[in-house]
Amino acid sequence: MSDVDVKPEPTAAKVATDLQDERLSQGQGLSGAISGLGSRIRGGDLGVIPVVAGLVIIAVVLQSLNSRFLSAANLENLLLECVPVGVIALGIVFVLLVAEIDLSVGSISGLSAALLAVFYVDRNQSVLVAILIAVGAGVVIGFVYGQVFNRIGVPSFVISLAGLLAFAGLQLAVLGTKGAINLPFDSALVKFAQLQFMPAWLSYALVIAGGVGLFATGFARAQARRKASLSAQSTVSLAVRSVALVVVVGAFVAYLNGSRGIGYMFVFFLALVLIMHYVLTRTKFGKSLFAVGGNAEAARRAGINVKRVYASAFMLCTTLAAIGGVLAAARLAAANQQSGGGDVNLNAIAAAVIGGTSLFGGRGSAFAAILGILVIQSISNGLTLLSLDSSYRFMVTGAVLLLAVGLDSVARRSRASSGRA
Amino acid sequence: MSAAPAIEQDRTGGTGHVLSLRGITKTFGAVAALTDVDLDVARGEVVAIVGDNGAGKSTLIKVLSGVHPQTAGTITFEGEEVTIDTPADAQALGIATVFQDLALCENLNVVENLFLGQELGPARLDEVAMEVKSWELLRELSAKIPTVRIPVASLSGGQRQTVAIARSLLGDPKIVMLDEPTAALGVAQTAEVLNLIERLRERGFGVIMISHNMADVQAVADTVAVLRLGRNNGVFKVADVTSEDLVAAITGASDNVVTQRSARRGASVKGESA
């Protein structure tokens, strides 16, 4: 190894346990963090950078074509539009992590929307009961998928293809001859999805709380690592990271607050993503998802109940698809025969993949769902503003999907050559 | 060999063996991979299992680790008859395995692989404690791994082997099984692994080791069990067996291809010197 950074030998200071190997090049403090990021990118560990760069390019192009694209009113609408399919994409991340697929999420969301409308409007149940029934249907479907997959061994591709047809049919049957049911505009659910925006003070408070929380958890971890004589992030770089978050997000929120502000439904989505991020990165269950996706036999030999992991991944996916269906119905204030049809299915899967979730399992994050759906909805929204019909939307989204997966494939090769898996 | 405490002796059911296999049979369809195999392992004993390719060594390891449960026969662990149906059962009993293919997840880093399935703090992972323990284990094995936060995909074969061995030592096992532990290793690392096996013996573990390398077997094993075509073909004390006897037992004849070869070589050497 010729390119080893020669670190000045620390004479008195103790070297952290994990930095003692002389072959390891790692800078200290803020500059070290930045140069480490640089070498990660060169090694093909791109993380979220391509998606964020893609979003910036999309924003610049669409804004130059129609100056209303980046207006606060349009952006807050765009964020709300993201939520239903974004929630479904979040579920897709879980099945993709274990190297399986669910092609039926669109049908499940449509069925869930139909169940919600029928029980809420036609049967006069309370909205809560209707939501529980709709989401419960998603849970049951995922359980059945898991059992069929584990016990009979049908590939998930085929199970969910069957589900795609069957649940689209069930949705039609549930809706009956009417074909469409409108939800009352004054119901809490519809208000939540269409009209309720966060007061400005609360949005700023949450942004600051987020920044403080990020710093506090980072600082606590750094302290614990120092105590155990491991290397730790410097307090300065932690502070810079948190301040940057507060400034960037705060500015965006302030811009939106110039109009109606941030919709509560988007906050709900964000909270869901953060919870799932915690589950994936900080829990035993999350690690077992990555392990099963990386090498299922190794996971089994390590004592992980692989079948239970598959079943939970399917159930999480279908449950989130059902929640997405409820939110879509609320957003539209109606459930009809087209609910969950069209491009919902493929947009959800494309969003997870564009956001950086590998189709081959074992790589991905909860943030993939939110970033990917932002890309897809931005394109869709921008082309609608330009009064272009769906034909362009399909073609552009298809091209972006191919570009994203192509970029991931190139990055994977680059990772392999620089030893980053 | 350090003497095991008296109380522990009682838990072996009076036989002195922590693990006893009787009549283990494993069939895959029409193929009998193992037939009526017996094996005993005492505390602080290193048992080497040797045999030709296809003798059933790896199958025996897989039976004991719960990967393929046996078709017939009994397993007695610490004096009690047990069933090992899943890898989790084997782990719960305290039987740790280093598989020949290592069974590591390439997309996960070293710490995640070491603690796979036995993470600390299930609902809120204790990353710091896991990393500290990882370094402790790796240092103990004199592992040459620069950082524990890189994916296993970027490690060399020997480094992966070390990670797999380190993983088997987590969770306080009583029996450690190693399937070809030195096959992928360099000279120094082989010596380290042999040292490690001796340390395991000193700490009172039972060690089962599969190896094709007679030098390694004779260096560390106390007992050698020979398998041939899925059957027991003799159990020898290393102290009073020669390499030739083992080869004879492995190949099933004293007049085998190995002795013929060495006889030929001996003759040709004599011919040259004459």
Uncertain spans of chain B, ≥5 residues at pLDDT below 50? 1-13
The poorly predicted ranges of chain A are: 1-13
What is the level-2 CATH architecture name of the largest domain in chain B? Answer: 3-Layer(aba) Sandwich
Radius of gyration of chain A using CA atoms only: 23 Å
Broad structural category of chain A: mainly alpha
- The CATH superfamily label of the largest domain in chain B reads P-loop containing nucleotide triphosphate hydrolases
Q: Percent range for helical residues of chain B?
A: 25-40%
In CATH terms, what is the architecture of the largest domain in chain A? Orthogonal Bundle
Largest sheet entry of chain A? 2 strands, antiparallel
Q: What general form of chain A does the structure show?
A: globular
Assign the CATH topology of the largest domain in chain B.
Rossmann fold
- Strand percentage of chain A lies at under 5%
Structural class of chain B: alpha/beta
Descriptive tags:
heterodimer; A: about 425 residues; mainly alpha; ABC transporter involved in vitamin B12 uptake, BtuC; two-stranded antiparallel sheet; 16 helices; globular; disordered N terminus; B: about 270 residues; alpha/beta; Rossmann fold; 2 domains; six-stranded mixed beta sheet; four-stranded antiparallel beta sheet; 10 helices; 10 strands
Notes on the structure:
The complex is a heterodimer of chains A (421) and B (274). By secondary structure, chain A is an all-alpha fold. Chain A has 2 domains: 48-195 and 263-415, Orthogonal Bundle (ABC transporter involved in vitamin B12 uptake, BtuC); 197-261. Helix content of chain A is 71%, strand content 1%. Chain B is α/β, with parallel strands linked by helices and 274 residues long. Chain B has 2 domains: 1-92 and 174-186 and 205-241, Rossmann fold; 95-172, no CATH class. In chain B, strand 9 and strand 10 form a beta hairpin. The longest helix of chain B is centred in the last third of the chain and has 17 residues, at 257-273. The N and C termini of chain B lie far apart (48 Å). The A-B interface holds A 17-18, 21, 23-24, 221, 224-225, 227-228, 230, 282-285, 287-288, 290-291, 293-295, 297-305, 362-363, 416, 419-421 and B 65, 67, 86-88, 91, 97, 99, 103-108, 112, 116-119, 122-125, 127-129, 131-132, 135, 145-154, 167.
